Amino acid sequence: MASRAVCPGSFDPVTYGHLDIISRGAKVFDELYIVVLNNSAKQPAFSVEERIDLIRSVTKDIPNIKVDSYQGLLVNYAREIKANAIIRGLRAVSDFEYEMQITSMNRVLYEELETFFIMTNNQYSFLSSSIVKEVARYGGHISELVPPQVEEALMKKYVTSK
């Protein structure tokens, strides 16, 4: 049986930190589904469709990646596509506490689904989509934080909205 994992997130926008986790996860699993989820606690800068397009653009050279979106519980999506694992990136100890709670609940809801944590590369340990958007909003330099396609999309979004 092929191994199939889900890498969920809001990816608003996708950063080099996300790509670090995605590319490393793609080396471990036969298929890796990048799933854009809506976080109701956040105001997204990009629509789900825009985020999917950006992710597809920056992962086009990784053959075993599929990009999708889902509304609802991640475990239901994982069950639908017959995934046997979730991949989550960890930047710092503070991430672990939150992720442990989510993993424990997912285990109650779908016992067969395993969660794998990948520590991000140290150079991305400070990086979040929120920080990238904040820097971009004020015209800061973000080329070391996101791929060129994402930088261009952010500049268009924030320059035209002023």
Give an overview of the whole structure.
This protein has a single domain (4-124), classed as 3-Layer(aba) Sandwich (Rossmann fold). The protein is globular and about 45 Å long. With 162 residues, it is α/β, with parallel strands linked by helices. It has helices spanning 16-28, 48-59, 74-80, 93-109, 129-137, 148-160; strands at residues 4-9, 31-37, 65-70, 85-90, 114-119. The protein has a 5-stranded parallel β-sheet, sandwiched between helices. The chain contains 6 helices and 5 strands; from the N terminus they run βαβαβαβαβαα. The model has no long low-confidence stretch (mean pLDDT 93). It is found in: Cytoplasm. This is Phosphopantetheine adenylyltransferase. GO terms for molecular function: ATP binding; pantetheine-phosphate adenylyltransferase activity. The record marks 18 as: Transition state stabilizer. Homohexamer.
Task: Give a short summary of the structure.
Substrate binds at residues 10, 42, 74, 88. This protein is globular.
Attribute tags:
162 residues; alpha/beta; Rossmann fold; five-stranded parallel sheet
What structural category arises from helix and sheet content? alpha/beta
Strand content: 15-25%
CATH superfamily: HUPs
CATH architecture term? 3-Layer(aba) Sandwich
CATH class membership: Alpha Beta
Indicate the low-confidence ranges by residue numbers.
none
What's the SSE pattern? EHEHEHEHEHH
Count structural domains: 1
Helix content: 40-55%
What multimeric state do the chains show? Answer: single chain
Largest sheet: 5 strands, parallel
Rg, Cα atoms, Å:
16 Å
